[in-house]
Amino acid sequence: MKLGRKGHRVTNAALVATICYGAFMGSAQAQSSVQLYGQIDEWVGAQKFPGNQRAWGVLGGGMSTSYWGMKGREDLGGGYQAIFALESFFRAQNGQSGRFQGDTFFARNAYVGILSPYGTLTAGRMTSNLFVSTILFNPFVDSYQFSPMILHTYLGTSTFPAYRTDQGAIGDSGWSNAVGWSSPNFSGLSASTMYAFGNGAGEGGQHKDSAQLLYVNNAFAATVVYQYVNYKNVANDFLTPGSANVVAGLRSQSIGQLGVSYNFRIIRFYGQYMYTGNSVVTGNYHVSTGQFGFTVPVGVGTIMASYVYSKDTGGFDQNRKTWAIGYDYPLSKRTDVYAAYLGDKISGESYGDTFGVGIRAKF
Fold first, then answer.
1. Is residue 30 included in any domain, yes or no?
2. Which of 3, 241, 267, 342 has its CA 20 to 30 A from that of 220?
3. 171-211 confidence digits (pLDDT tens)
4. What is 118-182 written as a DSSP string?
5. Do the domain assignments include residue 297?
6. What residues have CB less than 8 Å from 283, skipping those under 6 apart?
7. 102-146 pLDDT, tens digit each
8. Which pLDDT tens digit goes with each residue over 76-106?
């Protein structure tokens, strides 16, 4: 840093101020950190979507979607910290970025914020409260291949044109153009809210809102979350224009989800109920979804099992039944291997299933 520019004299006061500034920056840098982390998950097996043919291959994200990220924080003093996170999905089986072709680069998270004694305020792209609730209270957590609850919540309406269904949440597991707040933890109870803007001219009426309460106390945990997505007539969250025809004239969607779990040591039970209300030009309809599952420790590893049933009242008037069983075995603190099978039946479609073995490594 130049202390004098353009012939200006540097006074003693200015020199002292500069030295103090340098000492402060050195202290702040000593209390800041940046971390690089992620995971790679690959599996070998086969998939047959309802009503389609079986396909064999090497696939990504069996138990968890592969991603890498970096996050950091800086101590601002007084209990305040500046924080940020940038996280990107990738497909290790072909070396391409994103979960699919055309995916947002930092699709998992991309935010900056302030952590304080009164909670954490963030802005950018963030994981939705509904996704957090969904993965915390089902045995297969965030598996997009083997978790029945993930299939019924996020792999319905807009993700897979391989089968026709109007069940499931509209939009992604992450919200762009969002502002979020999370409360401190009060004896196991915490709250979080999020609001996402339409972010375009003439899109003032398009927005997303959500709120969640989470309670964790020893063996018992519970959550309640509400999500509301408002559009004019076309949902711009659909990944392809073709799949937007599945719910033509969508005006809004409301989702309420309850989740509970209890750990009896020899077995942990999970339960979820989700109500999805869709407002469309041609007539409203709703979907009721229930999930029951458990995990059982066997040796060093864990057996996982889950069953989900969804009933569509109106719309396509579909029933969907999905079940899965799997075994996860840790090789170390960072690496595990697994095997799983999932069966999937949608009314009016032939039976679908997914099975395979895989390995996941965290770094």
1. no
2. 342
3. 789 999 999 999 999 999 999 999 998 776 656 567 899 99
4. TEEEEEEEEE-HHHHHHHHTSTTTT-TTT-HHHHHHHSSTTT-TTS----S-SS-SEEEEEEEEE
5. yes
6. 314
7. 899 999 999 999 999 999 999 999 999 999 999 999 999 999 999
8. 999 999 999 999 999 999 999 999 888 999 9
H helix count then E strand count, the chain: 3, 18
Measure the CA–CA gap between 29 and 151, rounded to whole angstroms.
Answer: 44
- The burial of 53, by beta-carbon neighbours within 10 Å (0-12 exposed, 13-18 middle, 19 or more buried), is given as exposed
Burial of residue 54 (number of CB atoms within 10 Å: 0-12, 13-18, 19+): exposed
Residue matched to tokens 């869709």:
278
Specify if 93 maps to a domain.
Answer: no
Decide: residue 140, CB within 10 A, 0-12 exposed, 13-18 middle, 19+ buried: buried
Q: How many domains does the chain have?
A: 1
- Looking at residue 231, its pLDDT comes to 74
Which residue range(s) make up the domain with 204? Answer: 45-76+128-177+187-362
pLDDT at 149: 97
**DSSP reduced 3-state for 288:** strand
- Supply the CATH number for residue 136's domain: 2.40.160
pTM summary value: 0.86
Q: Are 211 and 192 in contact (CB under 8 A)?
A: yes
**CB of 86 closer than 8 Å to CB of 77:** no
What's the CA gap between 40 and 13, in Å, rounded?
A: 55
Q: Please, how many CA atoms are within 13 Å of residue 98, restricted to the half-sphere of its CB?
A: 6
133 versus 24: which is more confidently predicted? 133
Amino acid at 335: T
User: Exposure pattern of 98-123 as b/e (b: 16+ CB <10 Å)?
Assistant: ebeeebbebbbbbbebebeeebbebe
